[in-house]
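Narrative summary of target 7.
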Amino acid sequence: MNTNEIIRDLGIRLIRAEIKARQPKDAKAVEDAIATRIRIDNIGNVYVVDTDGNRDDAKSFEQFMNEVATDRPELFQGRPVATGGKTPPVGNPFKRNDPAYNLTAATKILREDPETAKRLAYEAGIQL
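Modeled conformation, tokenized:
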């Protein structure tokens, strides 16, 4: 798996984690409902596109998901859970059983400090 595939996989995992945090009735149905409005760029950022397919920088992925939860409540079991956050993790964001497991943080480290990302990924049993 090359770096681009890893970054894309992390983006997909981020999307699925965001969906899961919002307690969907059917995660696949939510994925299908948002598929035409989200993209993953070449550095792993998930972004929103408008109905014409143009990048919508005025709206974050989290804001978009809040709108989906409000506009399509039939897709979700309960109240949407607020996600995101700016607190840096302590631990290994690549390691699934670590409390610091966080795909957004892992992607950020991969972009900003590839050597540290490789080391942390290796410690987590992932080969970059």
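The CA atoms of residues 16 and 28 lie 9 Å apart.
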